[in-house]
Design goal:
Strand order of the largest sheet: 1-2-4-5-6-7-8-9
Structural class: alpha/beta
Bound molecules: ligand C2E, calcium ion
Shape: globular
Distance between the termini: 71 Å
Helix content: 40-55%
Strand content: 15-25%
Length: about 270
Amino acid sequence: SKAEGRGRFAFFEPALQEAARARRALEFDLRAALALGQFELFYQPKIHLGENCLSGFEALIRWRHPLRGLVRPDDFIPMAEDLGLIIRIGEWVLRAACSEAVNWPEGLSVAVNVAPAQFYTGSLVPAVAAALAASGLPGPRLELEITETALLRNGPEVLRQLAALKALGVKIALDDFGTGYSSLTQLRSFPFDRVKIDRSFADDGVVVRAVAALGTSLGMCVTAEGVETAEQMRRLRQDGCTEAQGYHLSRPVPVPALPGIIRRHLEA
Ligand code: C2E
Ligand code: CA
Ligand code: CA
Ligand code: CA
């Protein structure tokens, strides 16, 4: 009835207002976070399955909020995209990751996640060039992880920028493969160096074998994400993946934990 409807609104409105208020507070904090130095990169090891050796790390951003603690990217990256802050955050990530990776042994590379807006605004290529120049990291030791979303909008312009990145020596990976709509076409639309199979397929042997066969035949490395058990690791190796990443190998770790991981792998 009408009366009940009004009652429901009266009940929910304060909750909605509270949610909107909390969101505005978070937006306010996010605008200041860069200047306050509250962002941090964690690093997750990537393991080469054939040689069982460390091949590098993926940089994953965290926000150390004074009250909320460590905030995961899914809880603030979409907001940063809405607010247009992702461009400057993305530039910070590139600089921080490159200046960290230049300290690692030469064989180890760093993978950085790139938001679609970094392509659309045309800011990515100059930001990558600046981060490489400032750190002295050789281009081939930096890999950019892009998603299908970045490719879909504005196709030809994105492909032109990918070619400019390739000219800097940078490697390009297609991230979260299999979660979009036109996956197979996307895989052929550009000579990616790597395809990363989304973790939702870690237990789907049919999909893993198909993507591994296709990616390998196109000359790409094939990384399985979200490997949580030894059994999954064994099957992914058998199904033709070249690299693995996941909690079974290591969670993303803060910078102080890196020397220990690198040393263990060099000794092994
Ligand atoms: P992604 O690029 O697909 O990164 C993989 C996510 O899966 C990471 O979550 C990682 O911590 C998590 N993960 C790794 N291994 C496992 C596993 O074995 N099991 C499970 N359940 N999860 C695993 P995280 O760090 O919370 O990042 C989430 C997403 O946020 C990333 O997904 C990426 O899309 C985005 N992101 C992270 N850092 C950045 C960044 O610097 N810039 C941009 N634009 N996006 C970022
Ligand atoms: Ca990624
Ligand atoms: Ca992924
Ligand atoms: Ca993802």
